[in-house]
Amino acid sequence: MTPAASAAPAHGVTLRIENVGMRFGGLWALSEVSFEVEPGSVVGLIGPNGSGKTTLMNVISGVYRPTTGAVTYGGKVIADVPTHQVCRLGIARTFQVVKPFASLSVRENVAVGAMYGREGAKRSTRASFERAQELLEVVGLADVAERAASDLTIPDRKRLEVAKALALDPDVLLLDEVMAGLHATEVDEALELLRNLNARGVTLIVVEHLMKAIVSISDTIVVLAEGKKIAQGAPSDVLASPAVIEAYLGSRWVKRQQLVDAIEAERIEAERRKPPHVRPPEAG
Amino acid sequence: MSRSRTNAALERIGLGGITGNPVAFALVLAAMALLLAVPLTHNGYVELVFRNILMYAAMAYGWNLIGGYCGYVSFGQVTFFGLGAYCAGSLAHGGIDNLFAYVAVAMLVSAIFAIVIGLPVLRLRGHYFAIATLGIALAVTDIVANLDALGGTGGLALHQVDEAHFYIYYYAMWLVALGAMLATYFIARSKLGYAFVAIRENEDAAAVLGISATRYKIVAWAIGAMMAGAAGAVFAPANGFIDPSITFSVDSNVFPIAMTILGGIGTVAGPFIGALLLAGANELLQRTFVKAHTLFFGAMIVLIVLLLPRGLVWLFGLRGGARTWLKSLSAFRA
To answer: Could you say which residues from 201 to 220 on chain B have a Cβ atom under 8 Å away from some Cβ of chain A?
Structure first.
């Protein structure tokens, strides 16, 4: 695929996550999470295992109704929209646990999205298949278009998930760990693909464990820990934040970091007080 | 993992996509053309046997849409067949004697009843749906048996054309079966077919792609009901008499399901092949083994299910011969 020459105008409107809380039995998987996703931006969603990332993705895509708060898009509360109509709003998602239609071919899987997604009503069956083929070329699955979806390898199934979501013609695309299990060059390809999508005006919300990937692509990073938002901001600021280090590496690490910093400061201070170093005469 | 992947891949080769194997479908169309000749050379018993095959084929196609394509096993298909028959019966008692009117009214009534029943019932999944449809089938049978206007358990007699013109009923049933078959073919290839299969494969994933599962299940259920209703509307005058035990019989409920599964579930050729085989074999066995025919009939069904779990249609796509077949068999075992 060719990289977009210039950034297209962003589609859609601001997605608002307002005070979202989600309780499963006695456990609050999410509590008081609020942030906004501007059209055309790339928001990275990170956090340790079990911090509520996938739960939040499920709330945003309307799979779960939040216990408190709401996710709104264009003035519509997503929880009030039936699941099959969320894609008509312009929101599409991939699943962390991929869900291909096993008995259909790869192309047919994508075509189903093109038939019933946002623009589906305007597409004939044939046009849907043509659109599916285009998208398979975009994600790099054109060679296996005729294969049964259940025959694909795990990385290819992830690509298929992305193609299915793209077939819905979304303004906002939620990507749940689409790079997990990819090797280094494949991650680069995936990042290239996401950048191209974003350049065409698609807003991205990306959940990923691969820190390097998420830092390189996101405009904003939101960090969840134990269901709470603990940081939000530009990637470099967020990763330097003590709260984030603590969430990932534990409080001992923060203390140790503070100790290291103090020793380092002392060393620099001592260095400064020392008389200028006199170099010994060179031998030979 | 690798086993289930091999399994799915083999299934796909054998079944040839959403309409099923094209060779099998071509053969079925050729068989339908041959069946046009039956009343020219035979009448009476042979014509009756083949008319029954066509009737069961139409019902099997109706079941195949919801059971095969959507993956929702229904035990209520006979309800629509019976409704169709009673539509014809009621019209006949009202003094109307027109086969086209019977079929049109039966299809309309069946579709409306399917939608009304489907709205609550098709929100159920899996076994719950199957049980609910069985309940409806039993309830409707009892309601009809207690309605004096429909003749109660005594049934209704219908005016028939004279015996020299009995072929009219045969050709009417042939048209109903052909209509059901072609409708299935074109629906499967259309957007509708893909919605049905998406629902069968994963209802939640289908919803995320914009498919309202309840809506498309009702569409499949209602179209299937129209096929069964049309078959019932031709059966009633052809048989000359209907009562609850004939029109809502257990055989008429279970046969179309068995035929679809043995022929090839979720394919266009499968229901016809199954109907031809099962109804044909049943007739032959009954004549050969007057007392023990059900034993052989049952053994035949068990053998087919064991050796060809995806139905006879599978044979048409089995490339690689016995090895592929054996490999695929092991894929079906747990």
So the answer is: 201-202, 204-213
Q: Which CATH number fits the domain that encloses residue B87?
A: 1.10.3470
**Smallest Cα–Cα separation from A157: which of A98, A95, A94?**
A98
Count Cβ neighbours within 10 Å for each residue of A88-113 and write b for 16 or more, e otherwise: bbbbbbbbbebbbbbbbbbbbbbbbb
> Global pTM?
0.85
Distance from the Cα of B7 to chain A's closest Cα (Å) equals 9
Residue B5: its chain A contacts at CB < 8 A?
A: 150-151
Per-residue confidence (pLDDT) for residue B298, from 0 to 100: 85
- Rounded Cα distance between B329 and B334, Å, is 11
**Closest of B102, B205, B120, B114 to residue B160, by C-alpha:** B102
d(CA B82, CA A145): 45
A104 interfaces chain B, CB cutoff of 8 Å: yes
Q: Which residues of B touch A100 (CB under 8 A)?
A: 205
Tell if the CB–CB gap between B12 and A113 is shorter than 8 Å.
no
Tell me, yes or no, if B85 comes closer than 8 A to chain A by beta carbon.
Answer: no
pLDDT score at A277: 62
Check if the beta carbon of residue B73 is closer than 8 Å to that of residue B296: no
Query: How confident is residue B225, by pLDDT bands cut at 50, 70 and 90?
Result: very high
ipTM of this predicted structure = 0.84
* Residue labelled with tokens 């068995």: B258
Sheet strands (E) in A136-182: 172-176
Please say whether the beta carbons of B132 and B216 come within 8 A: no
Selecting from B202, B210, B211 the residue whose C-beta is nearest the C-beta of A99 gives: B202
The mean pLDDT value for A195-203 works out to 91
Task: Read off the pLDDT of residues A223-282 as tens digits, 9 standing for 90 and up.
Answer: 998 889 988 999 888 888 888 877 777 767 677 777 777 888 888 888 777 766 656 665
Range of the domain at B305: 2-332
Total structural domains in chain B? 1
| Paired tokens of A145 | 């278009």
* Measured distance CA(A90)–CA(B244) in Å, rounded: 52
Distance from CA of B19 to the nearest CA of A (A): 11
Give the mutation candidate from A61, A83, A109, A129 for the B interface (greatest B CB count, under 10 A). A83
Predicted confidence (pLDDT) per residue in B116-155, tens digit: 999 999 888 878 999 999 999 999 999 999 988 888 888 8
Q: Which of B7, B194, B200, B204 to mutate to test the interface with A (most CBs of A within 10 A)?
A: B194
- Residue from the list B12, B17, B210 with its beta carbon closest to the beta carbon of A116: B210
Half-sphere exposure in the Cβ direction for B319 (13 Å, CA)? 9
Contact yes or no for B285/B293 (Cβ under 8 A): yes
d(CA A111, CA A146): 12
Q: Do B211 and A117 touch (CB under 8 A)?
A: no
Nearest to B217, CA basis, from B79, B103, B120, B132: B120
In this complex, do A86 and B211 lie within 8 Å of one another by their Cβ atoms? no
Q: For the purposes of burial, counting CB atoms within 10 Å of the CB of A171, is it exposed (0-12), middle (13-18) or buried (19 or more)?
A: buried
